[in-house]
Amino acid sequence: MLHARVAVRIVGVLILATVLFGCGESSTTTDPSTSEPTGTTSTITSPPPDNGTSSTNADAVTTSSVPTVDDDSTTTSTTTTSGASTSTTLPGEPFDIVPPNGTPMAVVGVEFDDVLNVRSGPGTSFGVVARLAPTATMLSTGEARLLPGSIWYRVSTGNTTGWVNSSFTGQKGFVDDVTSGVVAALGEIPTAESMVELGEVVAQARASIDPPSRITVTVAPTEGDLGEVTYDVVGIGDDSVLGERLHIFGQPTGDGSGFSLMAVESQVLCGRGVTDQGLCI
User: Which fold has domain 178-270?
Assistant: First the structure.
């Protein structure tokens, strides 16, 4: 009888040890895909709030794996990466004032030697999936997010979809010859030593003082028998009209010391929309 009691106690100890050993194991593993938002995941992880800074030079990328999109490009990327809003964890809030789905949009206010980053999510903390040249175009998907200090549009360009800072987007309107208006504002036909300087004079004549316009050289100057340069003047205190794109022509002065103004073509840049006649809504 004693031997039977000992045997029962030994079996009980073995069963208790087995249970305790099994409880000490962890079945939890870490998912590395949630540690950093990238363009290869189908769910976008929310970054810290956007700081409202420019999404051009301040956070430009240098990796050659990210495509740069030119104005005439029909294929913009070798990746099928998408910035689709498939998650409810996107930063900010939905914003209703956005160009409708399929609306053509243009990059505006970006220097000729810079790019506009297209990101996998709305905000500068998301990865770059494409880079747009200063005169590139894109299509709105009809989605927008409001972040502290900035508004982000979801756009498509070629086979890439992502998010851009709306401050660097607009819609192209009608084209007009504004040469006489520039000359009247300046009181004379302006001259300068270079096309960049001549363009700056013209742009300043068209810019707003309050609020101060953002003036950028959008297309690099060319000089010869005919000089050309393109400036964007953005921000004139009108939420309908963003500004204008100025295509400036100059001719060499008689003494060969510079260029004098020949003509100025202005294409209006709209913020809310464009009519069939090219007028800003």
Answer: Nuclear Transport Factor 2; Chain: A, (3.10.450)
pTM for the structure as a whole: 0.72
pLDDT tens digits, one per residue of 177-215: 999 999 999 999 999 999 999 999 999 999 999 999 999
Determine the Cα–Cα distance for residues 15 and 5; give it in Å rounded to an integer.
16
Place of tokens 């998408």: 82
Mean pLDDT calculated for residue range 120-144 = 97
Q: Is the peptide bond before 211 cis (omega within 30 degrees of 0)?
A: yes
CA dist., res. 136 & res. 133, Å (int):
5
Phi, psi of 242 (to 5 degrees): -70, -40
Q: 217-234 as b/e, with b when 16 or more CB fall inside 10 Å?
A: bbbebeeeeebbbbbbbb
Judged against a pLDDT cut of 90, whether residue 56 lies above it is answered with no
Question: For the chain, what are the domain ranges?
Answer: 38-169, 178-270
Q: Cα–Cα–Cα angle for 213, 216, 218, nearest 5°? A: 140
Indicate if the alpha-carbon torsion angle 103, 106, 109, 111 is positive or negative.
positive
